[in-house]
Amino acid sequence: MSEQNKTGCSGCSKAAGNSAPVDFRAKLSAGSSVKKVIGIVSGKGGVGKSLVTSMMAVKTRNAGYKTAILDADITGPSIPKAFGLSGRVGVNQDKLMIPMTTATGIDIISTNLILENDRDPVIWRGPIIAGVVKQFWGETVWDDIDFMYVDMPPGTGDVPLTVFQSLPVDGIIIVTSPQELVAMIVEKALNMAEKMNIPVLGIIENMSYFVCGNCNTKHYIYGESHIETVAAKHGLNVLAKLPITPEVAKAVDSGEIEFFEAPWFDEPARRIIDILKDK
Ligand SMILES: Nc1ncnc2c1ncn2[C@@H]1O[C@H](COP(=O)(O)OP(=O)(O)OP(=O)(O)O)[C@@H](O)[C@H]1O
User: Fold this and answer.
1) Which of 91, 68, 51 is CA-nearest to residue 245?
2) Is residue 193 part of a domain?
């Protein structure tokens, strides 16, 4: 063993007797301020994570808070379309990106707003993608934001890990659907959050049921929901169970999600604001 290994190298804080954890957090640009950061996570794609991110932001903004969305779903960005945004974000004299602002005043940054052509596929490897997320946080003008929602890529891979390590995430919301192996998905997300020391603020089950327009009965198309049992097992809040509504898809497709009446999000948004605002 070399002398250096016996005494600990300078790059290894543990061996050198310094047990302070390494801080991987990216810094905000000078003058930027973001008070609370909420990550929206899911086990797989297509369960409605972007919808939940968008609607939570809309309700938070409607409640009078300065709200932003950081679209960290770098390879599958769907936030700009839901808000009818296109084109490219501006850059200020310090080469910082200026987020695009929606009709009601939500600041948004997304890969689709930096590409020359939003139909171009994003064929970047993990480290590049992770770097883009950090730039979205640290090389953007975030003007006095009260609540930022981060639309995470699905799963528990490289990019979610980077987001958790680089951004000061105050809590996550897990989005599931009844078709999934809910218990497993929730446990994976929980384990990841626990390892990263991030609180789970609650679970939202999307596509829970469909209300028939003729008989007004709830139909559980994907079978019975197990979300309450799973949540109770882990001591988590079920923030909402959302219906399947064709109008949601229409609002997203026409870029009018901001003007879609979605009463199911009133209570979850109020609870998240209440939990975090004074922390
Ligand atoms: N409750 C719902 N009722 C009807 N359509 C829905 C509902 N939730 C989501 N959708 C539609 O399903 C599609 C997928 O939703 P969304 O993009 O929010 O999922 P996602 O989890 O973010 O997927 P990805 O990670 O692949 O981007 C969208 O077209 C959306 O409009």
Assistant:
1) 51
2) yes
User: Can you read off the two tokens belonging to residue 143?
Assistant: 């003007």
The C-alpha angle 69, 75, 77, rounded to 5 degrees, equals: 35
Residues 6+ apart with CB under 8 A from 66: 105, 107, 143, 144, 145, 146, 147
- What CATH number has the domain bearing residue 107? 3.40.50.300
Residue 252 beta carbon below 6 angstroms from any ligand 1 atom: yes
Taking the CA of residue 47 as reference, the ligand 1 atom at the shortest distance is 21
91: left (phi over 0), alpha (psi -120 to 50) or beta: beta
**pLDDT tens column, 239-251:** 999 999 999 999 9
pLDDT in tens, 168-186: 999 999 998 887 677 777 8
CA 244 to ligand 1: nearest atom: 3
What is the complex's ipTM, to 2 decimals? 0.95
